[in-house]
């Protein structure tokens, strides 16, 4: 295994985002020093990790001289390259068109910047976020800093690789099938997918028939994730959801926790199953009531979700010229995107029922959470695969079978709209992080964060050796 990290004795030190805020506020470091250190760290590790999609370093240096305030004032970050940020192109991880710089911030970037962060650019993703591994046919894969022969995970891979390596303390991520939780799992990070409509989102995400994508961040600590959601609520608040509030410590309530290592027609591998049951035992030692259950997922769910996912690809393929003008070249789309679009066309007659059942899945979830507070599963079914296992230029049938085998647990909460968090609680025999995922009922992020604090305190998260 080849570790790659950027931790050093500079202005960033080994601070998480909250620690960096405290260092800036106390005068130990200045915002320009912090931004320059982050730029230097990205330049150090990005040639090996390939997590940066677009650099806006000079712009960030200017912003650092006159920071605009907010709790995270001066904390360097990245915006994922599927959300608009003023002055930066939104390339969606694709070579199928040439993006022009956005004229203004999208709704997410506007909210994110209002918390005080300073974006240094955009992070790399898989093409339109469809794959569980960001492996660009031209510029290459995003590599895992724990082992550069392995993938850095799903479409928030660039953000996760750079946070895990120490180049940044926090970065934007979003999740339409697991893309906050998957890269959090494989890079040893905290990744919370919030309840549907919790966070401000760009119009493209809001306009989906079923709004499966949720925005958030990847971090190295529970307190950073909690602080992000606290500050985000000060900028944008959905009044239909109870506020998360300021969660700073473990909860006292002992929870009813269901655990399963199986999904529909698929089960976690032996090692991951064992690690999940060890996590369940740790929860019991902490006084929680844990019960092993059958997977609470309807038999039709996998086919329905794949078809709905395919519909999004077909929409992109059909509207590409209208959206991107003369630069649009569908021959440059990867095989996964094209294969998903074909799947949607061939099964168009099934789309209305599949979409309706995806939308109705929240009712099944609500019934389940009458009996349990939390459900524990592995975030991913097996250990992190090597780069190339999910090569987007391979045959579509091979890609989709491997993808669905690995990403068997995360899509459920995208359909139901419920929150779920991946925590770096396990390590495989080969020394790789393996995330454990905790789901809760809609609006119950506070419970997940309180549990996350408790587990972080009892079982401190591993980090790349510095």
Strand tally is 17
Major sheet size, sense and barrel closure: 8 strands, mixed
**Broad CATH class:** Alpha Beta
Strand content: 15-25%
Overall pLDDT level: 96
CATH level-two architecture: Alpha-Beta Complex
| Lateral arrangement of strands in the main beta sheet | 8-10-9-16-17-15-11-14
The coarse silhouette is globular
Through-space gap between termini = 15 Å
The secondary structure category is: alpha+beta
Query: What name is given to the CATH topology?
Result: Amidase signature (AS) enzymes
Low-confidence stretches: none
Count up the helices.
15
Radius of gyration: 20 Å
Q: What is the CATH superfamily label?
A: Amidase signature (AS) domain
How many domains? The number is 1
Q: Into which percent range does the helicity of residues fall?
A: 25-40%
In short:
The chain has 466 residues and is of the alpha+beta class. It has a single domain (17-458), classed as Amidase signature (AS) enzymes (Alpha-Beta Complex).
Protein architecture, described:
- With 466 residues, the chain is α+β, with helices and mostly antiparallel strands.
- It has a single domain (17-458), classed as Amidase signature (AS) domain (Amidase signature (AS) enzymes, Alpha-Beta Complex).
- The protein is 38% helix and 16% strand.
- It contains 15 helices and 17 strands.
- The chain has helices spanning 17-25, 31-49, 57-65, 107-114, 157-164, 181-187, 203-206, 222-235, 270-285, 301-324, 335-346, 351-368, 396-406, 411-416, 445-458; strands at 52-55, 76-80, 118-123, 135-136, 140-141, 143-144, 147-151, 170-175, 190-193, 214-219, 256-259, 262-263, 266-267, 289-292, 374-378, 420-427, 433-439.
- The strands form five sheets. The chain has an eight-stranded mixed beta sheet with strand order 8-10-9-16-17-15-11-14, sandwiched between helices. It has a three-stranded mixed beta sheet with strand order 1-3-2. Strands 4-5 form a two-stranded antiparallel ribbon.
- Helix 4 (107-114) links the parallel strand 2 (76-80) and strand 3 (118-123).
- The chain is globular and about 55 Å long.
- The two termini are 15 Å apart.
- The mean pLDDT is 96.
């Amino acid at each position: 295994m080849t570790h790659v990290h950027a931790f050093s004795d500079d202005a960033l030190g080994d601070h998480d985002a909250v620690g960096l805020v405290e260092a800036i506020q106390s005068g130990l470091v200045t915002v320009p020093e912090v931004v320059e250190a982050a730029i230097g760290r990205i330049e150090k590790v990005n040639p090996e990790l390939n997590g940066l999609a677009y650099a806006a370093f000079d712009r960030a240096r200017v912003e650092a001289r006159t920071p605009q305030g907010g709790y995270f004032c001066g904390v360097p970050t990245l915006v994922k390259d599927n959300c608009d940020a003023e002055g930066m192109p939104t390339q969606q991880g694709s070579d199928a068109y040439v993006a022009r710089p956005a004229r203004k911030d999208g709704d997410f970037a506007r909210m994110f910047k209002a918390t005080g962060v300073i974006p240094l650019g955009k992070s790399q993703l898989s093409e339109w976020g469809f794959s569980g591994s960001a492996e660009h046919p031209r510029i290459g894969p995003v590599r895992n800093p724990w082992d550069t022969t392995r993938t850095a995970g799903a479409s928030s891979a660039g953000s996760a690789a750079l946070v895990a390596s120490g180049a940044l303390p926090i970065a934007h991520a979003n999740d339409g099938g697991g893309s906050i939780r998957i890269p959090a799992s494989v890079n040893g990070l905290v990744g919370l997918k919030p309840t549907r409509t919790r966070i401000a989102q760009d119009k493209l995400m809001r306009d989906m028939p079923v709004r499966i994508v949720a925005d958030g961040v990847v971090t190295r600590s529970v307190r950073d994730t909690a602080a992000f959601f606290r500050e985000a609520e000060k900028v944008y608040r959905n009044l239909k959801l109870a506020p998360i509030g300021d969660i700073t410590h473990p909860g006292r309530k002992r929870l009813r926790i269901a655990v399963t290592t199986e999904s529909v027609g698929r089960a976690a591998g032996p090692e991951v199953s064992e690690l999940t049951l060890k996590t369940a035992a740790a929860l019991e030692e902490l006084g929680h009531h844990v019960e092993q259950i059958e997977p609470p997922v309807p038999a039709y769910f996998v086919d329905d979700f794949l078809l709905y996912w395919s519909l999004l690809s077909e929409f992109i393929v059909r509207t590409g010229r209208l959206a991107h003008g003369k630069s649009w070249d569908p021959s440059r789309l990867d095989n996964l995107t094209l294969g998903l679009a074909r799947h949607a066309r061939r099964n168009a007659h099934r789309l209305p029922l599949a979409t309706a059942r995806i939308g109705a899945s929240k009712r099944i979830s609500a019934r389940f959470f009458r009996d349990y507070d939390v459900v524990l599963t592995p975030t991913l079914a097996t250990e992190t695969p090597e780069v190339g296992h999910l090569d987007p230029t391979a045959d579509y049938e091979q890609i989709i079978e491997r993808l669905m085998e690995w990403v068997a647990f995360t899509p459920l909460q995208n359909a139901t709209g419920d929150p779920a968090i991946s925590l770096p609680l396990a390590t495989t025999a080969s020394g790789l992080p393996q995330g454990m995922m905790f789901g809760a009922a809609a609006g119950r992020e506070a419970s997940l964060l309180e549990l996350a604090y408790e587990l972080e305190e009892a079982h401190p998260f591993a980090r790349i050796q510095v």
